[in-house]
Amino acid sequence: MPNVYDFPLSQPEGSQTLQEAPRTRRRGRPGHLDLPFLLLTLLLLAVGLVMLLSSSYAIAYFESVSKGAEAAPMSYFTSQLIYAVGGIVALIIVSFIPLSFLRRFSVPAIVVAFGLLLGVLLTGLRGNGAVRWIGVGSLTFQPSELVKAAVILAFADWTVRFGPKMGDFKHGVLPFLGVLGMFSFLLMQQPHLSATIIILGVGALMMYAGGTRWYWFVAAAAAAAMVILYLRSHQDWVIEKAKENYMFARVAAWLDPESQRRGDGWQILQSLYAIGSGGLLGLGLGNSRQKYLYLPEAQNDYIFSIICEELGFVGAVLILLLFAMLILRGFWLALQCKDQFNRMMVIGFTGLIAIQVFLNVGVVTNLLPSTGISLPFFSSGGTALIVQLAEVGLILSASREIGNK
Amino acid sequence: MTTRRTVFLMFLCGIVAFIVLILQLGHIMISQHDKYESAAVEEQVRSTTVNASRGTIYDTNMLILAQSATVETIYISPREMMDYKEDKEAIARALSEILDVDYDSIMKKWEDTDSWYKTVKVKVERDLADQVRAYVNGGFKEDPRYRDSEGELSARKRGYLASVHLIEDTKRYYPYSSLGSQIIGFVGTDNYGLDGIEAVYNDELEGENGRIVRAAAANGTDMLFTGYEEYYDAQDGNSAVLTLDATIQFYLRKNIEQAIEDNEIMNGGIGIVMNVKTGAILGMVSVPDYDLNDFAELNPDFQEKLQEEWDAGGMTPEDYNARYLELLQLQWRNRAIGDTYEPGSTFKIITLAAALEEGVVTTDDHFMCRGSTQILGREEPLHCWKRTGHDDQTLAQAAQNSCNVAFSTIGIRLGARRFYDYMEAFGFFERTGIDLYGEASSIWWTRKVFEDPYNHSQLASASFGQTFNITPIQLITAISAAVNGGYLMKPYVVRQIVSPDGAVIANTTPTVVRQVVSEETSRTVCDIIESVVSSPTGTGKNASVAGYSVGGKTGTSEKVGQASDDYMVSFIGVAPMEDPQVAVLVILDSPDPTSGIYISGGGMVAPTVGNILADILPYLGVEESGGSRTSNVTVPNVRSASLSEAKAQMEEAGFVVKVLGEGDTVTDQAPVGNIKIAAGSTVILYAGAQKPESGVSVPDMTGKTFVAAKQYFEAFGLFIRTAGVAPTGSNTIVVRRQSVAAGETVPYGTVVEVGLVDTDESLMETHG
Q: Rounded mean pLDDT of B473-478?
């Protein structure tokens, strides 16, 4: 077997390196982080901040005025800006942490995440009708963010640990499915469908990269496709069921937004109006009309709709291309990683970004049923932004180890 | 394997996923752009209507008959009351006080808390709306009972109420109330014309509403920067200038009302004044009428009538409502164009004109009336209204006598075919085309039946205006043609359309439909109908007007298909006969047969038309040219003039003068100056003597002759002014009513108006 999985900072030690125990410390000076990946991230962050200002301006204005307070149209933006600065600091700090240091926490991270999810269920704060947050002082935190990171960390560790055994069911499927099932169950108690989907997606991605047999994925994909086909072909039944069941209402809103205009369809309709209004070149930066309280969450999950409305097809595609380049660069970095664990970590976090972008844009364009998934680097939400930038820091940390021999 | 799988994921996440997303975006943003954009715009754009001001309706002298003014609709928003926790009791109390709306009804409206719009009152006039506005914009803070402190943002702090709103609207005003009501018509709550000129000329009058189109935020407020607003100016409506003259309309109605009262008419009356040369309608009255400002209310007479019917019992509430609507329809009805009737003898003018034009009669012809005549195809002999017969008559005398036998002879001479042709030519088979809605069609024999060579009965009866039904407007239009030189005109009511800034947009030019008879024939007709009025034995003599030559024709006809005792009495007058300018047609519907008044057009309606002409001819500036009638004359004011001069003035005015006192100057006079009294009255000039200050008890003069009444009143120190038929010395002229009731005490020298009627039965036809 060719020695492609060498640890970059260790002496070449032959095929043994595959089973090398995690290291706690990087020897010597840290290498250069990957500049293209960093720049793409910062560029997306900058564009994201501008678009956040535009999309949140009207909402912030009306929120403050309706409370009788002084108009504060910049409130979302300034808050996001502060978090962005904090996020960049976190990114830089994290990028100095060797991933091998984190590897030892893979099991504790799962345990902590599990504990936090239980804690949320028992004591959590209510938001959007679901319990998702826990608070420490004035800070609030979604444990699901930690769950995603914990799953990536654990799965990276385990796939490397199991190595060729990933091919059998006992190693390649069972433990992963067990963890995913447990977290999915807990998350659905909140309920938090979007986090569930993301974790399942990232988990599957890492299982696939780690060597799980391909037919498991074909089977899962076939099952999902059958469900979707069934729903698509029974639209009337879904719309009928939607009257009593909120999940069906979501699906009905996806299949036929007009049928749920007064309910779940409203938001997706407004999103389509915004996107469709954009046309080729858009209404111009700052000129969105749908952001004037027509499109709920225009500054958050649906910020991409406002981007489409203001910047048009051309602008929206350019931003998607930036994301695509970031993701391609991420996978390219993964391919460059000498360390299998690092590679799996990079695949995990890059895949996380990819899944979130795809789901977010898929939802706002009604390609997928509505779930509350934010757009990385764009959507309003301070702690999530810090977490995302820190995760970029992890990828960059791995990139430091690529060039050093 | 890992590398291959990573590359696969790289391809899936970095390329395939984005191709899918970009395709979906392209589908929405490019293919379906128009669909979503228009849906978005429809949602974002709010359109506010700017009401166009409805055009004014003027009479011919630019007096305003109908005008729009801005009013406001006041509505409440229960939803905002809930959102802002405003004090609904206090607001309801205030609104009910200002607007005179029931407090409980407002409280009930508050209950629908999902509603943003509950109307409290529509068409609120400015001053009241201003009071509401003042209350909403801070006035409520003065009310110590007002409490909203629980609200998130107190109305007190905000300074205005969020739950009370005003919006502008317009309201139509009719300054002359009932004057010309059926001609002017009215508008509905949406300012759309429903009747009369308001309806016929709605497109001209209503203008075009403007709009303010703006993009608004979902909460209705303006967008901050993307504010997009477009104004479409309201185009105010044009104004209509009528041919109707408010003064003539007033005189017409006043005299018809008086005739209805004097002659105990049961079903109201109809009157038309037409410019015979142009077909312009100068006045058009249909009694009963209604107050345009309250068009949905019954007029006071009808209210009383309905109340009586209700009080009589036997009426269910449904009956009551049905009857209410029936009476409402009746008062809205313009009977001058919408009802048909049998014209009777007034129609003889048409027969005369046709026969003269065809040369079947000349003014030298003589007609023998023995009271009845045999008609081919008719079993019973045809009777003249005067059973004893009119004996030998010239053509003019036959008209003066309104002789049915003579006119049936004339009709038969003309022949059914030509007669029918002339009916068509005079426009009796088609609507006149006047610019008003609701014109009725006439009812005639078919040509086939009419022209039956073995039966002349239809032709004979039609010759004096029986066995067919026409509208009043058809008759006056045809008779105008007979006297104006032969030209059938198209009658019209609107003479001009004027833009809001006063520019004339359209003028109505008189339309000649066709020439029916020659000018010579027309001249002869004029001469003959003038003699009907001027001849001392003419049936139309009561229509004579002092100073003017008047022509005319009486008419009395049974109402077809109704109680046999009901008649339509009518008179058509034309003046001045040297050069006819106006025609006046008055029809009274159903004199009370139990009143004891002799039912005839000559007795009941001729004086009315005479009075109308006496009122409107001087007003129209028609020069006096002689004529026979003298009635009331203005008493000159001669106080402090020298006695001799005063005497001369009084005598010149046609009064007899009596002087009391020894002085040289007039210290007082009875009656006072500038008041109208009967010509030939004895006026008293005081030269130093004192006018008595005691009151006079008014005697009952009804039933007395005019001559007796005048002498009696003068003896009491009262003066007489006449109305109704012209006061002559004839003892057939009697007082039917007096303006001051008998037994009432009035100051010395008071003028009492007496209504006169002519009881001379020998000259009045009953049928025809």
A: 97
| Sequential DSSP letters for A294-324 | TSTTTTTTTHHHHHHHHHHHHHHHHHHHHHH
Place of tokens 């939803």: B79
Residue B14: its chain A contacts at CB < 8 A? Answer: 324, 327-328, 331, 354
> Is the CB of A277 inside 8 Å of chain B's CB atoms?
yes
Query: Does A334 lie at the interface with B, CB-CB under 8 angstroms?
Result: yes
Residue from the list A68, A208, A362 with its beta carbon closest to the beta carbon of B153: A68
d(CA B558, CA B465): 11
Phi/psi at B460 (5° precision): -60, -45
A290 part of contact set with chain B, CB < 8 Å: yes
Chunk chain A into consecutive blocks of 10 residues (it has 405) and report each block's average pLDDT, rounded to whole numbers: 42 41 53 91 97 92 77 91 95 92 90 86 59 57 84 93 88 91 87 87 93 90 90 83 77 82 82 93 90 88 95 96 96 91 94 96 91 91 90 93 65
How far apart CA B71 and CA B125 sit, in angstroms, is 5
Q: Which positions in chain A touch B215 (Cβ < 8 Å)? A: 289
Closest-CA residue in chain B for A287?
B226
Q: What is the pLDDT of residues B315-335, one digit of tens each?
A: 889 999 999 999 999 999 999
Q: What is the gyration radius of the CA atoms in chain B, in angstroms?
A: 36
**φ/ψ (deg, to 5) at B751:** -95, 125
Residue B643's contacts (CB-CB under 8 Å, 6 or more residues apart) are B659, B663, B664, B665, B666, B685, B687
Number of residues written out for chain B: 768
Which of B21, B27, B34, B148 is the mutation pick for testing A, counting most A CBs within 10 A? B21
Query: Within chain B, which residue ranges are assigned CATH 3.90.1310.10?
Result: 49-56+63-177+204-235
Contact residues for B730 (Cβ-Cβ < 8 A; gap 6+): B758, B760
> How far does A194 lie from chain B, in Å, by closest CA?
18
Sign for the pseudo-dihedral over CA of B718, B724, B726, B730: negative
Chain B residues closer than 8 Å to A292 by CB: 44, 216-218, 223-224, 226
Q: What CATH fold (topology level) applies to the domain B632-763? A: Trypsin Inhibitor V; Chain A (3.30.10)
User: B762: buried, middle or exposed (CB in 10 Å: 19+, 13-18, 0-12)?
Assistant: exposed
**Residue A243 has which token pair?**
């009257």
B200 neighbors B433 (Cβ within 8 angstroms): no
Architecture of domain B49-56+63-177+204-235: Alpha-Beta Complex (3.90)
Which positions in chain B have a beta carbon within 8 angstroms of at least one beta carbon in chain A?
1-3, 5-7, 9-10, 13-15, 17-18, 20-22, 24-26, 28-30, 32-33, 35-37, 39-41, 43-44, 152-153, 157, 215-219, 221, 223-226
Q: Where in chain B is the domain with CATH 3.30.10.20?
A: 632-763
DSSP state of B193: B
Q: Chain B: nearest CA to A257, how far in angstroms?
A: 13
Give the span between the Cα atoms of B672 and B662, in whole angstroms: 20
Cα-Cα end-to-end distance for chain B:
122
Q: How confident is the model at residue B197 (pLDDT cuts 50, 70, 90)?
A: very high
A331 touches B at CB < 8 Å: yes
**Residue A233 to residue A247: CA distance in whole angstroms:** 17
For the domain spanning B338-536, the CATH number is 3.40.710.10
CB-closest option in A57, A278, A335 to B29: A278
- How far is the alpha carbon of A275 from chain B, nearest alpha carbon, in Å? 6
pTM: 0.63
Cβ B26–A313 below 8 Å, yes or no?
yes
Pair of tokens at residue A8: 């970059």
